[in-house]
Amino acid sequence: MPGSTLIELDLSIIFLLSVILIWFMIFYQLILTLAGFFYYRNARKEKKRVDKLQFEFPKVTILIPAHNEEKVIAYTAEAMLKLDYPSDKLDILVVNDGSSDATGEIVRKYSIKDSRLRLFNVPKGEGGKGKSRALNLGLQQTDAEFIAVYDADNTPDPTALKYLMIQMLRDETLGAALGIFRTINKNSNLLTRFINIETLSFQSILQAGRWKLFKIATLPGTNLVLRRSLINKLNGWDEDAITEDSELSVRIYMEGYKIQFVPYSITYEQEPESWAVWIKQRTRWVQGNNYVGKKFLKEIPTFKNKFLAFEMLYVFSLYYVFLIALVCSDVLFLLGVFNVVRISLPGPYTLVWIVGIVLFLMEILLALSYDREDKLSNILLTILMYFTYCQLWIYIVGRAIYYDVIKKEKRTWVKTERFEVKPAEK
Known about the structure:
The structure is a single chain. By secondary structure, the protein is of the alpha/beta class. The chain folds into 2 domains: 2-31 and 307-417, no CATH class; 39-272, Spore Coat Polysaccharide Biosynthesis Protein SpsA, Chain A. 55% of the residues lie in helices and 12% in strands. The chain has helices at 2-50, 73-81, 103-113, 131-139, 160-170, 190-214, 228-233, 244-254, 275-296, 306-337, 349-369, 376-387, 389-406; strands spanning 60-66, 90-96, 117-121, 146-149, 174-183, 224-227, 258-269. It has a 7-stranded mixed β-sheet, with helices on both faces. α1 (2-50) packs across α6 (190-214) and α8 packs parallel to α9 (275-296). The N and C termini lie far apart (69 Å). Residues 1-9 have low confidence and may be disordered.
């Protein structure tokens, strides 16, 4: 029948477009993966050269926003005090952001023992308004030339801060430098194992690959250093942004500065151990990127850095266009398998679909090899991850759109729930 032929044709076109979009994303990520491989290899050589250099390090203030962090703040304080940085130039400021637990008291005891660590209690009534607000208040408490940011659950390697500062001192075009973060509780359960693979892949593919090809990287929420003069020029952190790191990254590049990815500056952090906490955290991330998109999308054509414009479009495509294409192709593929619909366009689409999955898995495994995490258990986990964890991102994006577009709720920063540090992690 003519009507059924038209429907069949429409479905075929949708399927074909979905396949094209998916393969474009996979191919682009393959390029980034290979670029990341070469950057990691070069970074190992660079680290050896950097270790031989001598610098006159300037004063740096580490800002640590802390809201109800009594479970982890002691370990963070101890790690910060072990940083390999000149004692008279290191200022550690914990911003006690309206905590109702023992966070302030724990930090106060450390500050009495070591003057490098200070406690700033956000005035009553002004606390708990988000990480950006806490950072802006902390910024007012220091005159340091450089500002570092670490989350309250972070335990960086002793050399982490020094390696970031060296890059800042070597290159005046850098507005910021960032290191990597590792999942300290990666072996806790299946979820944390998935998150470990995800975070390693993100940093090895997107961060390393983009820096190698385009000299572009995106600030994470932790293990980073910024120029104080630039933060002042940008009027600090945007307090309406719940992903303050990605928002600030765009403004830094718009100002003409670069952000360097430094893979041998390492910190360790907790990741969600329950699916409920993970869903809340990831939904916040997507909502935060929705805000960034709404704020800067119209300005993309005016960006001086065209690679940045491309990257912003790519990120939005990854969250929306790619996921929509993935849903369409998966649904049509399954419907075709059960003969509910028929794809009339000629082509080995089943083979293309399978090869796409295999290529995706190979990219992840190559990225894991940079950190020597390409063991058999992670290979099996990556396969399982594609059909479970990765597919859940469809739900996360849909949930964020529901809150932003349908319910139109005010975006609020929600702290990721912490847990007691296990003996093996201390």
